[in-house]
Amino acid sequence: MIDLRSDTVTRPTPAMRAAMANAAVGDDAYGEDPTVNKLETCAAELFGKEAAVFVASGTLANILGVKAHTQHGDELLCAERSHIADYELGMPAWYAGCSIRQVQTADGILSWELLERHIRPPRPIFPPTTLISIENPHNMCGGSVYPLQTIDRICDEAHARDIKVHMDGSRIFNAAAAMGIPPARIARKTDTVMFCLSKGLGAPVGSILIGTSESIERARMHRRRLGGAWRQGGVLAAAGLIALRDMPQRLHQDHVKAKILAQGLARIPSLSVDPAKVVTNILIFDIRDTAFTAPEFVAQLKARGVLVSQAGGTRIRMVTHFDVSMDDCIEALSIVEEVISNSAAHSGERSSIDSSAQPQPNCGLA
């Protein structure tokens, strides 16, 4: 199968497997796992922040980031279709006791002008806005990436109002590769930032939350409350260290593959995609002008050996990664074109049969 559903399907590299097999370990709940400690220190230094904590998933990292900055009854602002709002089981409400307001955006990119009008004034009838979450890149808007000046302004204006900023940087290394800058620069002014080791970086398990020593200590407490303390977690952290060392520099290859997919899809008349907007490893295209529903289209591709995801309505998502080659992408394009062509041909046959069964006008000819 050519698996374009997500970069979460990546498998650990041989170097990661070797590092896992030979990892030095200890009990992380006691702070004694040397490999976990090394990973956390490395991540914090890489982002120029004080501390980091290794956790099992991006969802866990995000809720710990929310909980580090909020109290029950607070309000969180984020862009519409953000992962933290739509795909994390309502954890900000369920665990942190925060309401979420999703701000309408173009391509998932918040601006201070959009946010400012939604910030609650300090009155006793409103939940106070205490946190802004920035998803960068924005998954369900096709991997769109924030301009640096936009992030900086949001952080500066928020901090002036005593509002914290958390970055859901699940794929922040993809954003860094697309912009040609270090990830630390992207997240420099944020209060916390998380990233996933188990997506484009290819590690089998894990995410990192980074911030001040105080915020990370609070996050550790809540990690334990949620059953997230490791024992000999160094076995997994070892793969994370290899992911940080080896994988960021190859992410541009995935971006090239996504761009080629987008350009190929754009040449198929009944599909809608803008290749110019594909800047990372995620692309979303629309099949509304085909004869398929999204589930039908996904099933047709699966039957021919290509796995893709639905992205809401008639939108389809593809994500490239290091387990999918350029040849795989070319083959996937060919299969998509075949599915669309077959559908058009069958549609034409049905139209021909239907029209032949109807009375034909004589147009005034005897």
Give the proportion of residues in helices: 40-55%
**So, the CATH homologous superfamily of the largest domain?**
Type I PLP-dependent aspartate aminotransferase-like (Major domain)
Strand content: 5-15%
Helices and strands, in order, run as: EHHEHEHHEHEHEHHEEHHHEHEEEH
Structural class: alpha/beta
> Can you name the CATH architecture of the largest domain?
3-Layer(aba) Sandwich
CATH class identity of the largest domain: Alpha Beta
Instruction: Write down the CATH topology of the largest domain.
Output: Aspartate Aminotransferase, domain 2
| CA-based gyration radius | 23 Å
Oligomeric nature of the chains: single chain
Largest sheet, in brief, is: 7 strands, mixed
Main features:
Aspartate Aminotransferase, domain 1; alpha/beta; 2 domains
SSE blueprint and pairings:
Layout: E1 2-3, H1 14-21, H2 34-47, E2 51-55, H3 58-69, E3 75-79, H4 83-86, H5 91-94, E4 99-103, H6 112-116, E5 129-135, H7 148-160, E6 164-168, H8 172-179, H9 183-186, E7 192-196, E8 207-211, H10 213-225, H11 234-246, H12 251-266, E9 282-286, H13 294-303, E10 306-307, E11 309-310, E12 315-319, H14 326-356
Parallel strand pairs: 1-10, 3-4, 3-5, 5-6, 6-7
Antiparallel strand pairs: 2-8, 7-8, 9-12, 11-12
Explain this structure.
With 366 residues, the protein is an alpha/beta fold. The chain has 14 helices and 12 strands. Helix 7 links the parallel strand 5 and strand 6. The N and C termini lie far apart (60 Å). The C terminus is likely disordered.
